[in-house]
Amino acid sequence: MSLTATDPRATPRSDEDLAAAHAAGDAHAFDVLFERYRGRVLGYTRRMLGRPELAEEVTATVFVRVLEGRWKPTGRFRSYLFAVAHRACLERLRKRRTAQRYTPWLRVVPPDRTPEEVAVLGDRQRQIDGAMGRLPEEHRTLLLLYYGQELASKEVAEIVGCTDQQVRSKLAYARRKLRALIDEEAG
Amino acid sequence: MSAKDELSDWIGLRDEELDGATRRAVAELEARDPEARADADFARELAGALGREASGGPSLAEVRARSARDDARNWRPFGGGLLALAAAGLVFVLGPPTGAPDGRDKGMGAGPALVALSAVAEGPAGLRPLTAGSAVAPDERVVFWIDASTAGSLTLVEDGATVVYPQTGAWSARAGSQAVGGDSPLAWRPDVAGPHRYTAELCVSDGRCVTHDLALEWTPE
């Protein structure tokens, strides 16, 4: 008995196999990667950008760039994907910064939740979400990539362009800063 | 940095990131230092609080449709059948880049790395060289050229925000004059008409980066 590609017992293709197939012209391979990572990229962009409509637009940008780009098999596909997402978020944040310096909505509604969702969340989650929105983008990026997306510190280092040691040190600083913001808000 | 500072940087990381000795040292630090323990507890809390996924998002059809629109709007292959000859001969025909490289160095002091950005407009009337502030007609697209004093990693950005090339990763430019995109130069048109500033940034192996800007005025349709 042999397993077919549609047999649920068949081992799913790895990200790297799918990315290589996409680079070789397999249109279906991109579709699988898209479904596999859409939620994760949206989760990242929503928490980085704070506004669901911007996050949706940037998530689309990320996947358009992956669709049109050519992943090189020198590392993990997810590192490449989140590097694209990281850069796309920074581009969007820079555009927004020139148009609007103060974003009061980040203090009122936690970054990636609608007002309705906030109403049913616990206080602690609201505190964390609110404080994340007040962190500098560099620290927010590190916390989201490492704790949120569960990337290895080495992957995070490649994405943000620093060493492993710098990532560890900055993560420690970011956690302390986040705790301080939460404590400050709790008063 | 003290030994304790370095060890405290390992607090809050996942077990698989630590070797056995570091794991034991961190556990001992957390056991005797309340602040270290609080940091570790907070890191565990964050792992659950910063949710990995969100529901919703763009559909596959939307992504594919946008890719098709972007291809039509921004990029077209330059030159068609005589691409290789054009890439090789264009600088000879039109002359070297006209922009003077300012060699603005973002690294540790001045050095030999320089980059010059220039552009050529492609339209129904053929090719014409552009200079700083040149107007680009609605029916024209632009091919960018760089002249690099040394090989390096190059990016081209519009108005400090929009990445023009490459869309992902980095482009390994060689020393000398070349079209942006190397063997497959592409002709660019921005989303919005009006003035735009293009910045070529060349980063060399020792970590220094230099830039050169070129301003163009895109005439509305």
Give a short summary of the structure.
The complex is a heterodimer of chains A (187) and B (221). Chain A has helices at residues 15-23, 27-49, 52-68, 77-99, 105-108, 115-120, 123-134, 137-148, 153-160, 164-186.
Written description of the protein model:
The complex is a heterodimer of chains A (187) and B (221). By secondary structure, chain A is an all-alpha fold. Helix content of chain A is 73%, strand content 0%. Chain A has helices spanning 15-23, 27-49, 52-68, 77-99, 105-108, 115-120, 123-134, 137-148, 153-160, 164-186. Chain A is globular. Residues 1-5 and 98-111 of chain A have low confidence and may be disordered. With 221 residues, chain B is an alpha+beta fold. Helix content of chain B is 28%, strand content 32%. Chain B is built from five helices and 13 strands. In chain B, strands 2, 5, 7, 8, 9, 12 and 13 form a seven-stranded mixed beta sheet that branches. Chain B has a four-stranded antiparallel beta sheet with strand order 4-3-6-10, with helices on one face. In chain B, strands 1-11 form a two-stranded antiparallel ribbon. The longest helix of chain B has 16 residues, at 34-49. The model of chain B is unreliable at 76-111 (pLDDT under 50).
Q: In terms of topology, how is this protein built?
A:
The complex is a heterodimer of chains A (187) and B (221).
Chain A lengths: L14 H9 L3 H23 L2 H17 L8 H23 L5 H4 L6 H6 L2 H12 L2 H12 L4 H8 L3 H23 L1
Helix pairs in contact in A: 1-2, 2-3, 2-4, 2-8, 3-4, 4-9, 7-10, 8-10, 9-10
Chain B lengths: L2 H6 L11 H13 L1 H16 L10 H14 L1 E3 L5 H12 L9 E2 L9 E9 L2 E5 L4 E2 L4 E8 L3 E7 L3 E4 L5 E3 L2 E4 L6 E3 L5 E10 L5 E10 L3
Parallel strand pairs in B: 5-13
Antiparallel strand pairs in B: 1-11, 2-13, 3-4, 3-6, 6-10, 7-8, 7-9, 7-12, 12-13
Helix pairs in contact in B: 2-3
